[in-house]
Specification:
The complex is a heterodimer. Chain A is an all-alpha fold. Helices cover about 55% and strands about 0% of the residues of chain A. In chain B, helix 9 links the parallel strand 7 and strand 8. The chains are: A mainly alpha, B alpha/beta. Chain B: This is 3-oxoacyl-(Acyl-carrier-protein) synthase.
């Protein structure tokens, strides 16, 4: 799980082009949206594509996204339980 | 009818034109067939959360326009008019590559959103919260001149008191490779590259952004006034002199009235004849060239416009842009002529705002 979290942080930084942020700057329980990392709705779409492309997870109900994308901790748990690749 | 004055300028180019005085620091290139713009620190102009999604052209456009607005002491223009030949080609490439690489799946929104030609004008307006007229012209090598013509008419006819205009183009790796393949860009074998005495086809390709504030009010810091603009889509080489002569006559000017002629020589031996023909009309006139400094791109003529503005304001013609070593005591009326590959011809007359 720890390796998955590190990988996820690295992919998020790359995909969202978070220029001034390093893997170690993101805590597992930091909020990804709002006050935490400050991501927005366009980033949410990028994360949905990331789940599909990298882990074979298709989010059929967008409402699920709110809980899944809360933090690295919630995302990695969801990926570990649902990944198909 | 009002007069259209240039009251603020901002230029990002392959030279350090953004942070230094007019051409006080220049680097001459004879060995690179692609030149990249000297990028300033954008953090002063754009919030970090926005920078991360912006392509180079957008960032250059925002920074250059910010400087022009600051010089003109203007917070909010009535209109924003942009010219670009290739638009946000970097993100267009990213988006198209993603379609191919991912078999038309997993398409993300960011590069698509910023792949359109009007992204620069749109992002400038978003940053300024400017809800006025916003238009982007994509007309090859007269994209900037078309934006200028639109702005000039709006200012003269009092549809707008002030307009922010600019020309911007960015390079992108795949497009550069294609341009090399079809010899639009000079080959490595043609080194050293020369704009004055070209011995090979093609150009040194480049990128940049030059923005200007046009207003209907003369100010102490006015650079010049825009007297006339003309655009012609195609001409034969033997038609150029007639085109220029007719244009000047239509504005009660003769070649001898021109104090400096700014030429768009780009080192392409195939099309240099257009400029040779023009030079013979202005043998007794100081001739200016600039693409040895800026390189060639669809809106490189906006760099030439920036050069002309500064020559008039400073009343000084720097040696580095002087083509025939002639000088004048006063630079009152300046003519600009540009063409690209025998097409997209443009003429502009600028006049000293203090006369």
């Amino acid at each position: 799980m720890e390796a998955l979290k590190q990988e996820l942080k690295s992919k998020i930084i790359e995909v969202l082009n978070l220029e001034d942020i390093a893997v170690e700057d993101i805590n597992d329980n930091d909020a990804l949206f709002g006050d935490g990392l400050g991501l927005d709705s366009i980033d949410a779409l990028e994360l949905i594509v990331l789940l599909d492309k990298e882990y074979g997870i298709k989010l059929t109900d967008p409402k699920d996204g709110k809980a899944i994308f809360e933090s690295i901790e919630t995302m990695s748990k969801y990926i570990a339980a649902n990944r198909t690749k | 009818m009002k007069t259209c004055y240039i009251n603020g300028v901002g230029c990002i180019s392959t030279q350090n034109t953004f942070e230094t005085e007019f051409l006080s620091e220049v680097t001459l290139n004879e060995t690179e067939n692609v030149l990249f713009a000297n990028q300033p620190s954008y953090k002063e102009f754009i919030p970090p959360a926005m920078i991360r999604r912006m392509a180079k052209g957008v960032k250059m456009g925002i920074a250059a326009s910010t400087k022009a607005l600051k010089e003109a002491n203007l917070d909010l223009p009535d209109a924003i008019i942009t010219g670009t030949g290739m638009g946000c080609v970097e993100d267009s490439e990213k988006f198209l590559k993603a379609i191919l690489d991912n078999n038309e799946q997993f398409l993300t929104p960011t590069s698509f959103i910023q792949s359109t030609h009007n992204t620069v004008g749109g992002q400038i307006a978003l940053g300024l919260q400017c809800k006025g007229y916003n238009f982007t012209y994509v007309n090859g090598a007269v994209s900037f001149e078309t934006a200028l013509l639109d702005a000039k008419m709006q200012v003269e006819n009092e549809e707008a008191n002030n307009v922010l205009i600019g020309g911007v183009d960015e390079t992108s790796s795949h497009t550069l490779e294609l341009f090399k393949l079809i010899n639009i860009i000079k080959s490595e074998a043609d080194k050293p590259y020369s704009v004055v005495t070209p011995n090979s086809k093609g150009v040194v390709f480049s990128e940049g952004a030059s923005f200007f504030v046009l207003e209907n009010e003369k100010k102490d810091n006015s650079y010049a006034s825009v007297q006339a603009v003309s655009i012609m889509s195609a001409l034969e080489m033997d038609e150029v002199q007639d085109y220029i002569g007719t244009f000047l006559a239509a504005h009660d000017l003769k070649p001898s009235d021109i104090d400096a002629v700014v030429l768009g020589n780009n080192g392409d031996s195939e099309f240099d004849g257009y400029y040779d023909s023009t030079k013979t009309m202005f043998e007794a006139t100081p001739q200016v060239f600039y693409k040895h400094l800026s390189g060639e791109y669809n809106t490189a003529s906006s760099f030439g416009f920036w050069v002309a503005c500064n020559i008039i304001k400073n009343q000084e013609l720097p040696e580095i842009v002087s083509l025939n070593s002639l000088k004048k005591e006063k630079y009152t009326t300046v003519l600009l002529y540009n063409q690209y590959r025998g097409k997209d011809h443009s003429l502009i007359v600028l006049k000293n705002a203090k006369t």
